[in-house]
Design a protein that fits this description.
The protein has 12 helices and 11 strands. The protein is α/β, with parallel strands linked by helices. The longest helix has 17 residues. It binds manganese (II) ion (MN).
Length: 342
């Protein structure tokens, strides 16, 4: 699921403890910095099928640690490929294959990853880690670390990495700045979601002190697609169905569809951002079948609708306005269940 790219209403759920104060977060970040200083190697990981925030946050700290001369590795689970629109993020070529990741890291840090299961094949490495630091902004985070730094008020996990670097005096170099900028623009929808605050602009301003290729990044991240994807998009929109009485629109992309158009699973990530433009809909759903046959269901909501609730009922997670879950049921059955919930 790469459904973390929309705002959440941070006042809506969770006990007060889910919203640690600034001092508590800073104390936890200092604790993480101490662990990083003591570990022989710092092992970084993010969730399966990483999005711009997961990659950007992880690579941001990776570049900082490398600049500081701290031995570190970074990885994510198989399928060990990143969507082509992340190609401008520096450091993808420095990632370690998950099979070569430390089996029992002294210190492992996860980014943007709400649960151990979301680490995919790296879950076993996380379970074997002596210290496990969890850096995330998902309110549904299961707090599976030995040190959990969860800030639902942060617009992106990259915001927390920036805070860690600036708070503790870790070096911020150009590559780190580009990665953190990518994390920020991806999870704020290019400063368009309600998560966009003075804090996000302050971080953006700090990062802009470096040489950020703004327009090149923007085109790669948000605009450019292969013709094959645009053809698949046309087909998926042609088949999209509006359920007017439920203000619901949905479409699906099967494994066969992707094979027919020659499109990889990760390339279809942004389809929902097109379909959610439907004026008649408050809830948008895209059901994408992975190469393993499993259906990944992405939900987007606007207004009073809480799609997080629907996703949680299906064993998934996310935010109030952007959530998702996985299922082996066929798309029609899934949609029937969602419609019943609405
Ligand atoms: Mn995120």
């Amino acid at each position: 699921m790469s459904d973390e790219t929309a705002p959440d209403d941070t006042m809506r759920w969770g006990p007060v403890a889910d919203h640690p104060g600034a001092a508590a977060i800073d104390a936890a970040l200092w604790q993480a910095a101490r662990l990083m200083a003591e570990a022989d190697t710092v092992a970084l990981a993010c969730h399966v099928s990483p999005d711009g925030d997961a990659l950007g946050a992880m690579l941001g700290l990776f570049h900082s640690l490398r600049e500081a001369g701290r031995p570190s590795i970074a990885s994510f689970s198989e399928p060990f490929v990143t969507a082509p629109h992340y190609r401008e993020l520096p450091g993808l070529d420095l990632l370690t294959e998950p099979s070569a990741f430390l089996e029992a890291p002294e210190l492992m840090i996860t980014f943007d990853t709400g649960s151990l299961a979301r680490l995919g094949s790296l879950e076993k490495n996380a379970r074997a880690a002596t210290d496990l630091v969890v850096i995330d902004h998902h309110i549904s985070n299961e707090r599976y670390g030995t040190l959990n730094i969860i800030d639902p008020d942060a617009a992106a996990s990259g915001m927390l990495v920036h805070r860690l670097i600036r708070l503790t005096g870790l070096p911020l170099n150009n590559d780190a700045a580009v990665c953190l900028y990518a994390a920020l623009v991806c999870d704020t929808g290019r400063f368009q979601y309600d998560t966009t605050t003075d804090a996000t602009f302050e971080v953006a301003r700090d990062l802009m002190g470096f040489d950020i290729p703004v327009s090149r990044l923007s085109r790669a991240l948000f605009e450019e697609h292969r013709m094959a994807y645009l053809k698949l998009l046309g087909d998926a929109l042609e088949r999209a169905q509006l359920v007017p009485e439920k203000h619901f629109v949905w479409t699906s992309v099967s494994r066969d569809d992707r094979e027919r158009f020659g499109v990889e699973f990760d390339e279809v990530e942004g389809l929902i951002d097109i379909l959610r433009r439907t004026a008649e809909a408050n809830v948008t759903c895209v059901i994408k079948q992975g190469d393993d046959g499993v259906q990944r269901v992405s939900l987007r909501g606007i207004g009073d609708v809480d799609v997080h609730r629907i996703a949680v009922a299906e064993g998934g997670g996310g935010h109030r306005f952007a959530a998702g879950f996985s299922t082996t049921d066929d798309p029609e059955t899934v949609v029937e269940r969602i419609l019943a919930e609405l």
